[in-house]
Amino acid sequence: MSILSRFQTQSKHFAVAVVFLGGFTDLCVYSIIIPIIPFVLEEIHEPESWIGILLAIYGLGVIVGSFTLGLMVSRKLVSKKLGMIGSLFVVWASILFFALGHNIWMLCIARFFQGLASCGVWVLGLALVADLYGGEEDKIGTVMGIIFSGLSMGMLLGPPISGWLFTYGRQWPYVFCAGLVGLDLVGGC
């Protein structure tokens, strides 16, 4: 195996690892927030009826993000990699809004940003990996399976991590999420 082909293979594996971590991070951040929303609403003296509204606002962010990022990438206004990295920064901003959110409007903005960025983190990541493995149909299924396992692991591990960290203080789940996003940003840049 030549040095060039070995480097290309390692680059592909690294891209898969970054997208795996991005998917894990995105779904972990999403699922870490869900169990603590009732406690946050109680702290800011808002009714629990806001839980459903905050979930819907996330969905609205996903819809807006899908159209916006889809148009931007398809018209080549932004690359897939840059869109993914930008989305990670938006996830980080949503975590900051949650951590500092002392009124319902900050929480609404945080959930919208989180939904908006979710599309960029894992959808653009999947598209980036699909481009890298474009001519290798025998490997793309395995690679996508690995990446989707990151999404599933994030959704599975987020709530128990949230509960455990929340027992040590309100801010610890957010610190953990910010650390995950930071790690993925280091890999993506």
TrEMBL record:
InterPro entries: MFS, MFS_dom, MFS_trans_sf, MFS_Vesicular_Transporter, Tet-R_TetA/multi-R_MdtG-like
Domain annotation Major facilitator superfamily (MFS) profile: ranges: 15-189
GO molecular function terms noted in the UniProt entry: transmembrane transporter activity
Segments traversing the membrane: 14-37, 49-73, 85-106, 112-133, 145-166
Main location, first listed in the record: membrane
Subcellular location, record wording: Membrane
A single GO cellular-component term on record: membrane
Keyword presence, DNA damage: no
Alphabetical list of Gene3D superfamilies matching this protein: MFS general substrate transporter like domains
Keywords: Membrane, Transmembrane, Transmembrane helix, Transport
Pfam families linked to this entry: MFS_1
Keyword Repeat: no
Membrane topology: Multi-pass membrane protein
Family (UniProt): Belongs to the major facilitator superfamily. Vesicular transporter family.
PANTHER family recorded: GH10249P
Name of the protein this chain belongs to: MFS general substrate transporter
